[in-house]
């Protein structure tokens, strides 16, 4: 019996161990498959490659083979990547970040629907995506009575296990067996008209059981694996990120002084990536203690706040670490098990809870415009980057919503502050504070023209400030003075970049 | 003692009766004033005119006089109108619909911040709009122990009474005294980190008391009035509205058949206006019984569903009737008092509750684009119409979110389906079903290009269909195939209208 087989304590389920190829045989062309995984954690490691092989064999034989794939969020090369390279994905939702798949989406070869991460489970349960044929879910183990021990991401697993007609599990021996007890799986949200309040009132509270439930009769097979998650490395915070972080921390201090934030702030949500990580790293040396986290993805920065004692608890739907942070996590897991709570993404991203808890939402953006609209998803208005993820869930419902970005990209050829964003993910109604390394614009309580002056003066890169002022001045002269725009110029910066590779006029 | 004075049962408060002019004397230049009123109901009838006179006198003497005015939603000519004509408004939030004020906003003479109606109270309580100097609130009466009986709109009154340093009440004898007991004033939402679940689990449930609470020491004066609300007349449903209504009702029937809606549907939210009213009128003869309403504004159509027995209860923050419907309401108020529940707008529009109850949200729009983004607020991208109101609260959190509009406006010169909306209030992520008199596009579970084909084929007016297809075809050829656009043409239809008065190429 392998190490992974020992993770299956339920005798009957041990009988269901099959190979990845046998599992792939259960997946047919055209099926909708609900797959586990969130930000490179907790995705299946073996079956996707077997499905990809099956697809390639079918294609070689002149037969169609593609699946409709719905996950928690992004997975990794062994899942999205291998399936995309085999041309095995016809439809994808709600979030992805794989380079091959992204190219297919932007070439029109794969359809993608970008959905708020708090919405996807409800919409699937309600049948808005049709039937779910198979769920393919990684777990860390199975108890003697058949309860599933979540892996490093809970994501949409509750719903996929409930909704799918058949279930394939991957039991991954490389996930720490001591994860048992860390998760808090509230699985009774259901659908209206039978819903009750979700009883969570503190970010660190537990309200349910640590196990995922699955009707054991639906389990069509269990595949054993022993493979690590994506575990991407973080860059050390650079000057750019440190500057953004320092401004946010100053802003927090000011809000505490004004009585608009408690001394230990409010639960922190932090988007994925280096800038977000830098903000959390900055809090390590900041004046705030007894912090709490309530976020989608817990990464290195938040782990270190917990380990240092600055943060008392953190709630997340996925743990996505660098290899070094994963080592620290595994070393301290006995202490961390009570301080980190892994929840379904329908809980971490739930508008009810984000609003109630008064989350401070901090998310990265591709660009913002002078009125505070934010584009989180599209390059030059047409090409999908990754997806909106949970940024809308947090920005809309947060007590304070921040969007951060360096003020320029591509060596200065792209301004992240533009006259009009080329795609709107977060409207002027949902964006409270914009921060670049140039400065911070506090947009609360301000009209569009007041916002425009602030954003241009405080956030835009000096190389673009005059051009933005010129646009705004001429738009004001053209009339329509609530939100002045020149419609035939509003998107011209993006068009210029498409044509010349530079937003600046040469 | 006047009829209105009899409405003040509290002896001490009767001593505080003052004239509108005395009340206006309490308002100084630059003050932030929280004013009651929601969609032409429950706004103060006398003091605004007195403030306007004070402003005019100040201006005549060469002195500045403007107030910052925050309400529930729109008021009426006697409030927004009279103050705007006196140039007495420097800043306005969160929603308005007065023609004079709208012109001032679009001329740059008044600043306006367009805020989700569920957000405004929280942001004011948190201090994001600074101090609130005075609250000016209409009530229907005051009990012997000093509790306030809400008028026909609750709106933001809970928060304005809590937050303002001073309170001026208007007691309006023309509001039906039998309103006492109709409202359900849950006033303990507060701010994080001390929040609890809002215990509402059914649209028609009562969870609190029927009275507004105010610290009596803060009451600086009470003004007696005897004046009716705006009571705008509705147009009888025309063929256009009837067609949109019939399609929505067919869609409901289909969803019930598919098991995606219960036989009595889910609680209905309906935006303001003739099309919304037509949908509700259509339900009068539809196959659905035991309907429930959970909406911001209860208008004629929903009242008649209750009176006919088709709808068992309706929750709203304002009752805004035509004169005829108001008569029916007053005639049947003893029966209606238990079936209609007037709540704070922070409750009617709360994301926690809209999500939990599974509301069906139906809202009007100015325009939608081929990818399903919706503009609810701006004319040709720059000029504010009224504001986003609660449409975002509902669209984002609803179980089903509809946006409706005739397919053309201005005699065909404006297409309501455009290549790209000129302002984004609801993004592609929040719009499930678009309906025009031409047809319905069910966007659920579809990628942007699938949505585009559906919207063009089903919703666009035939006069614009070829031009939309041509745009979409050429955008696809240009690449960027997730959301194909031609950036230098995306807003050209609006620019053409600005230049020629017609979106069509002549």
Look at the structure and give the mean pLDDT of chain A.
97
| Overall geometric form of chain A | globular
Quaternary organisation of the protein chains: homodimer
- Got a strand count of chain A? 25
Distance between the termini of chain A: 68 Å
CATH topology of the largest domain in chain A: Glutaconate Coenzyme A-transferase
Layout: helices, strands, pairs:
The structure is a homodimer of 506-residue chains.
Chain A lengths: L2 H4 L4 H4 L5 H5 L7 E4 L11 H14 L6 E4 L6 H9 L3 E5 L5 H8 L4 E2 L7 H6 L8 E9 L5 E3 L6 H7 L2 E7 L46 E7 L13 H19 L10 E3 L3 H11 L6 E4 L2 E2 L1 H9 L2 E6 L1 E2 L3 H9 L1 H4 L3 E3 L2 H4 L2 H7 L2 E5 L2 E3 L4 E2 L2 E2 L3 E2 L6 H7 L2 E5 L3 E2 L4 E2 L1 E2 L14 E4 L2 E4 L5 H11 L3 H16 L14 H9 L6
Parallel strand pairs in A: 1-2, 1-5, 2-3, 3-4, 5-7, 7-8, 9-15, 10-12, 11-13, 12-14, 15-20, 16-23, 20-24
Antiparallel strand pairs in A: 5-6, 16-17, 18-19, 21-22, 24-25
Helix pairs in contact in A: 4-5, 5-6, 9-10, 10-11, 15-16, 17-18
InterPro entries (chains A, B): AcetylCoA_hyd_C (IPR026888), AcetylCoA_hyd_C_sf (IPR038460), ActCoA_hydro (IPR046433), ActCoA_hydro_N (IPR003702), NagB/RpiA_transferase-like (IPR037171), Succinate_CoA_transferase (IPR017821)
Keywords (chains A, B): Transferase
Protein name (chains A, B): Propionyl-CoA:succinate CoA transferase
């Amino acid at each position: 019996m392998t190490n992974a087989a020992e993770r299956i304590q339920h005798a009957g389920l041990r009988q269901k161990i099959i190979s990845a190829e046998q599992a792939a045989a259960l997946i047919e062309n055209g099926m909708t498959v609900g797959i586990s995984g969130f930000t490179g954690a907790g995705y299946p490691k073996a079956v996707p490659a077997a499905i990809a092989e099956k697809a390639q064999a079918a294609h070689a034989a002149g037969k169609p083979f593609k699946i409709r794939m719905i996950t928690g969020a992004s997975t990794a090369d062994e899942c999205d990547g291998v399936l995309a390279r085999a041309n095995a994905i016809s439809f994808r939702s709600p979030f992805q970040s794989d380079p091959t798949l992204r190219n297919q989406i932007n070439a029109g070869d794969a359809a993608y629907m970008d959905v708020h991460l708090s919405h996807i489970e409800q919409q699937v349960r309600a049948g808005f995506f049709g039937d779910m044929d198979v769920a393919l879910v990684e777990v860390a183990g199975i108890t003697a009575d058949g309860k599933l021990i979540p892996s490093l991401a809970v994501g949409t697993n509750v719903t996929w296990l409930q909704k799918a007609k058949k279930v394939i599990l991957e039991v991954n021996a490389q996930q720490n067996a001591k994860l048992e007890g860390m998760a808090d799986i509230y699985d009774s949200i259901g659908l209206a008209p039978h819903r009750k309040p979700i009883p969570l009132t503190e970010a660190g509270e537990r309200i349910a059981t640590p196990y995922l439930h699955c009707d054991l009769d639906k389990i069509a097979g269990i595949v054993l694996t022993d493979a690590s998650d994506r575990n991407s490395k973080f860059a050390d915070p650079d000057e750019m990120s440190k500057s953004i972080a320092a401004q946010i921390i100053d802003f927090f201090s000011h809000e505490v002084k004004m009585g608009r934030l408690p001394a230990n702030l409010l639960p922190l949500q932090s988007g994925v990536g280096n800038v977000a990580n830098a903000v959390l790293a900055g809090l390590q040396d900041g004046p705030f203690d007894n912090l709490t986290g309530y976020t989608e993805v817990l990464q290195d920065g938040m782990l270190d706040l917990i380990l240092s004692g600055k943060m008392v608890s953190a709630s997340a739907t996925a743990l996505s670490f660098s290899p070094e942070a994963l080592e620290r996590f595994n070393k301290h897991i006995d202490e961390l098990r009570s301080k980190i709570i892994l929840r379904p993404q329908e809980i971490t991203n739930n508008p009810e809870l984000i609003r109630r808890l008064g989350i401070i939402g901090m998310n990265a953006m591709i660009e913002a415009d002078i009125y505070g609209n934010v584009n989180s998803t599209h390059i030059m208005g047409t090409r999908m980057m990754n997806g909106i993820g949970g940024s809308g869930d947090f920005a809309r419902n947060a007590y304070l919503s921040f969007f951060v970005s360096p003020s320029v990209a591509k060596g200065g050829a792209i301004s992240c502050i533009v006259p009009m964003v080329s795609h709107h993910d977060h409207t002027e109604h949902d964006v409270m504070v914009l921060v670049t390394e140039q400065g911070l614009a506090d947009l609360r309580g301000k009209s569009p023209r007041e916002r425009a002056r602030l954003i241009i003066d405080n956030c835009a890169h000096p190389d673009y400030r005059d051009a933005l002022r010129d646009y705004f001045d001429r738009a004001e002269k053209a009339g329509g003075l609530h939100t002045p725009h020149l419609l035939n110029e509003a998107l011209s910066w993006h068009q210029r970049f498409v044509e010349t590779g530079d937003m600046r006029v040469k």
